[in-house]
Amino acid sequence: MDPTSSSSTGSPFDMVSGALAGYIPRAGLPTARPPGADGESDDREQILGVVNLDPELRVTGCNLDAAPFAGVNVRPGDAFADLLPTADVPTVTQRLRRVLATREAHVARVQRLRRDDGTELVVSMSILPAAPPQVGLTVSLIAMAKRLHLYASATAIGTSLDVGETAQSLAQSLLAWGDVAAVDLDYAVWTGEAVTEQAQERIRLRRAALVPDRAWPEGYLTPGDNLPREASRLLAGAVMRDDVPRAVVLQDRDAIERALGDPRLVRALVPGDRPVSVACIPLVVEGPEGTPGPIVLGVTEVWRRPDRVFRDGELLDLQELVAKTARHVDLARQHQREHAQVLALQRRLLPRTGSDTIEVASVYQPTTPDSAGVGGDWVNSFPLPGDRTALVVGDVVGHGLGAAAAMGQLSMEARALLSAGLGPGEVLERLDETVTLLDDTDAGLAAGYSALGSTCCIAVYDPVDHRVAISNAGHLPPVLVRPDGSAKTVAGQPHPALGAEFVVREQFDVHEFAAPPGSLLVLYTDGLVEDPAASIDDGIGRLTDLVRDVHPWDDLQQAARRVVAGLAPQGRLRDDVTLLLARMTGRRGRDAATWHLPARADSAARARALAGPLLRRWHLTGQARDSALLVLGELVANAVQFGGGPVSVRLVRSGGRLTCEVGDTGNGRPRPRHGGPLDDSGRGLHVVHKLTARWGVRWTDTGKAVWAELET
Question: Which of 74, 320, 376, 688 has the maximal Cβ count within 10 Å?
Fold first, then answer.
C-alpha cells in the first residue's frame, strides 16, 4: 500500500511519516540504495525519520529505523533534549516551545543529533504542530545527503566576518564527513596581517574551532591553544608537498603515530586513544599578484573511525567545501585587519588620564564587533595652554573606515586649532570648512562617502575661574551635574551640523557657565540616548537621572560603565555608544593669582612688585624666581606697548611648572623681531623664548593673552 493512502485517517505521526516518506521519491531526490551499488552509496542516501513529542517535550513515538540513524537511540518517555548536543539544548527547546505556543511550523533547520558512541549526525529538522485533536509536536528528521549538506554549508558559511565564527561554522559542517572536526589557522589570519611567505618554518598555527563540544583528554588541543611548532611544521609540510596544497589522508592510528613520531604530539592532536583515521585539507587562497603560488591560511582535520574509509568522492566534497570556506576566511582576515586599524585610531582618540584639576573617564562601544560597525563617534580630552583643558565630542556620519578616517582628521584638526589658541567657536568654523572640503575631494566622492551633517561639541574648562566655555555644532547638549546633585542640560544658541551650507551661515555661539569644584560634565553621542520607542528628550532625561546619582567619591570609570549599562540596549546596538564624564576639581586659590593693571609705562614694574612676594611664598628662589619676574615684566611691557588696557596678569603654580599669562585688548600676534645691536627694543620675546619651556598666544573675546611656561 502507498504510505500516503491512509494519511487522511491515521494519526498525525502516521500522516507526517507517510507523507514525507512518499514525498522524497516523487520530488526526484535520490533514495537509499543498497551498499555497494555504486561504491558511493553513503554520499547519495537521504532517509527520513520522525519523532512524536508530548507537550512536555518527551518522546511518545518514533521511526528512526533507517540506516543513517544507526546509533541514534530513543525510547518512549525519553526527553527529546537527550538527542541533542549540550550546547544546542536551550536553542532547540525554545523553538519547540514556540511551535507549541503558536502552532506555526518551524521548517528545515540544520541540526546535530547525538549518537550513543559520542559522534554526531547532521540532519535537517522540521518541527510541526500535532493536528487536532492530538496535542504535542511531530519532529521530522532528514539525514542529509552529502551533496545537499555541501550546498547548505557553503551557503551558510561566510555569513559572519568574524574569523572565529567562520572557523566554527566550517568545523560544524565538516562533521557530516566524520566524528570530530578541527580547524587550525595561521597566526597571521588572527591578526589580520598579510599572509605572503610560505616558508614551512614560518607557519605557526592556532586552533580556531573544534566540534563536537565535549570533555577532551588531558593535553588535547582545544580552541585558543597554539599548536607546538613541531606540529605546525608537520601539518604545513603535509599540505605543502611539492609546493602544491593537497589533501592528506592517514587511514589508521599506526600511520598517524608514525607520522607524528612524538607521544606528546599524539596527545595534542589525536582525539582519544581509540582507532581513528584522519583527513587533512588545507585552507588555500590564491596569492596576491607577484607571489609564486597559492597561500595556505591553515589546515582542517576530519577524524573518524578507520572502518569508514575516506573515499575519493568524499575527499573531493571536503576539498570543495574547504576551498569555498577559504575565501571567507581570507575575507575575515582582511576585515580583521581593517577592524584593528579602525579601533587603533579610536583608541588613539580616547582621552588619556586627566590632570590635577580635572578627572576624565570614557566608554566607547561600536555598533558591531567588526569594522563595518565601527563608526565616527569620538571623544577626546587634552590639556591646553594656560592650565586649561579641552573636552571634545563628535559624531561623523556613517560607519566603517571612511567615517573613522574623517573622524580622525576632524579630531586631530580640532586638537591642533585649540592648542594653537583658537576658541571653541572659531575651531568649529574651521571644522565646518574642513567637512565641506572633505565632501568635495575626489577621494571622498570615489568612496561614496560624505561627512556632511557631522556634529561636534567643544568645551574648554578654566580651573582658575571655575568656568566652562562651550560651542556646539548640531550635537546633543551636554549635561552638567553640580556639587549639590542638581543636574541640567547645557544648551546654548542652537546651530546646524558641520557642512550645512543649505542654511544661513552664522557664527558659532560660545556659551559660558560656572562649574564649581566637584561639578560633573557629561558629553555623549546620540547612540547612548536614542530609543525607537521614546523621544530623544526622554533618553536625555534618563541619562540626566543616572549621572545625578554619580557621587563625588565614586570611581569615575566604573561610574561611566554603569551609566552606559543602564542606557545602552542589550545585544546588537543600533548605533555607536560614546560617553565622556569629566569631574572638575579646579585649581586651589592659593595656587593661582590674578591682577588687572592699567596700560601704563610703570605696569611692568608693578607686576613684578606684586609677583615677587607670591613667588617667595611658592618657594621659588634664585634663578627660577628671577627668570619668572623677568618674563613677566617683558610680557606686561609688550602688552602695554602693542596692545591696550586694561592688562590682566595671571600666575598659576602646578607641580614643578609656573604659568604666566598676560592679556590685553590688542588683536595683533606677537612675533620676535631681529633688531640691530644698538636698538633699544625688540628683544623682549627673544628673552621670553630663551627663559621658558614654551610660550604662545591664546585669543579671547576681548583680545589676546600671551602665555609662557617655566620649569621651577
Answer: 376
Q: What is the rounded distance in angstroms from the CA atom of residue 108 to the CA atom of residue 48?
A: 13
pTM (two decimals): 0.59
Identify the burial level of 303 via C-beta atoms within 10 angstroms of its C-beta, where 0-12 means exposed, 13-18 middle and 19 or more buried: buried
The pLDDT score that the predictor gives to residue 112 is: 80
CB under 8 Å to 53, separation ≥6 — which residues?
Answer: 59, 60, 80, 96, 136, 137, 138, 139
What is the distance between the alpha carbons of residues 266 and 467, in angstroms, rounded to a whole number?
69
Identity of residue 685:
L
In the prediction, which pLDDT does 24 show? 37
The per-residue b/e assignment along 626-637, b for 16 or more CB within 10 angstroms, e otherwise, is ebbbebbbbbbb
Which residues of the chain, if any, have pLDDT below 50? 1-46, 198-201, 241-242, 370-373, 442-448, 571, 678
| pLDDT for residue 59 | 92
CA-wise closest residue to 378 among 349, 398, 401, 409: 349
pLDDT score at 450: 67
pLDDT reported for residue 707: 93
255 vs 276: CA distance, rounded Å: 10
pLDDT at residue 401, rounded to an integer: 65
Mention every residue, 6+ apart, whose C-beta is less than 8 A from residue 145.
29, 30, 43, 44, 45, 46
What is the predicted pLDDT for the residue at 534?
Answer: 84
Secondary structure letter of residue 555 according to DSSP: -
Buried b (16+ CB within 10 A) or exposed e, 205-233: bbbbbbbbeeeeeeebbebeeebbeebbb
- Positive or negative torsion for Cα 184, 186, 192, 198: negative
What span, in angstroms and rounded, lies between the C-alpha atoms of 162 and 574? 19
The three cell numbers of residue 214 are 565535549
What are the residue ranges of helices labelled H in 30-88?
none
SS (H, E, C) 641-674: HHCCCCEEEEEEEECCEEEEEEEECCCCCCCCCC
Q: Are 696 and 385 in contact (CB under 8 A)?
A: yes
Residue 627, pLDDT score: 92
Residue in the structure block whose three cell numbers are 566554527: 168
